[in-house]
Amino acid sequence: MRRDEDDDKKSEFQTEFILETHFRCRTGGSFTSRTSAESLWTKLDGSHRGDNRKGIHGVKAYLQRYGYYLTQNETNSQTNAFDEALEASIKSYQKFFKLNVSGALDKETLDQMAKPRCGLSDNFTMAGGKLGGSYYAFFPGRHIWPPEKRHLTYGFIHEYPSKDHGDGHPFDGFGGALAHCFGPIDGRVHFDAQEVWDWGVRILQNDLESVALHEIRHALGLGHTDVQDAVMWPTMNFGSRKTRLHDDDINGIRALYGN
């Protein structure tokens, strides 16, 4: 696209690829952190309200990061006590991901939490009335790009970041959050260099195109949906690919920008 030098720099759509050279594809990456995390979380299978087990504070941190664990007492979020607030947050998480709503940490729930996912919260503003069976969501305030913004400036920046890469939203290492994005009118998209990236479907690797499509739609103003076949579903399975827009994805953009 051509560059419009008169555009307000504050409304540049700047896509920042934070990736190591060659995306660490095919031969790169370490699976140690994911293996150890899964091992720890497996020991939490069957945990329920009233329990106190090592690792529960990690579940609280995960659910807090993604908009489920809401507490006024930060001390509680750092303990291994399975409290009432955690039970309520697990129920909300299970409902969103269409799991058995028990409030307990069963294998199905722990497996879902262990999946690679978008680093943004699931706590978006749902579309009013879910018209036509749509479950798309928007960023709070329903921010969009201005109508006069039609010629966008893209910046591709290769960096070698640590987990904390200076935007206030640190990555969590291999196997957790794959990428995150800032909505309109910022538009930055960051990919975690510690993940193993590739193009297409490969075992234990992440399809860059699928994740990029998801994050770019965040940059346009869409939030997460609870329609599992949609691009805006928050999680991705290793070795999977999702590059075809679902009706829910299309309806969300039309609701923001019209036909």
UniProtKB/TrEMBL annotation:
Cofactor note: Can bind about 5 Ca(2+) ions per subunit. Binds 2 Zn(2+) ions per subunit.
Family: Belongs to the peptidase M10A family. Matrix metalloproteinases (MMPs) subfamily.
Organism field: Cucurbita maxima (Pumpkin)
Alphabetized UniProt keyword annotations: Calcium, Hydrolase, Metal-binding, Metalloprotease, Protease, Zinc
Chain sites annotated for binding Zn(2+) 2: 118, 214, 218, 224, 232
Any single Gene Ontology cellular-component annotation: extracellular matrix
Protein name (Swiss-Prot/TrEMBL): Metalloendoproteinase 5-MMP-like
Superkingdom of this protein's organism: Eukaryota
Amino-acid positions noted as binding Ca(2+) 1 in the UniProt annotation, renumbered to this chain: 195
Entry cofactors: Ca(2+); Zn(2+)
GO molecular function ontology, one term from the record: metalloendopeptidase activity
Active site (catalytic residues): 215
Binding site for Ca(2+) 3: 172-173, 192, 195
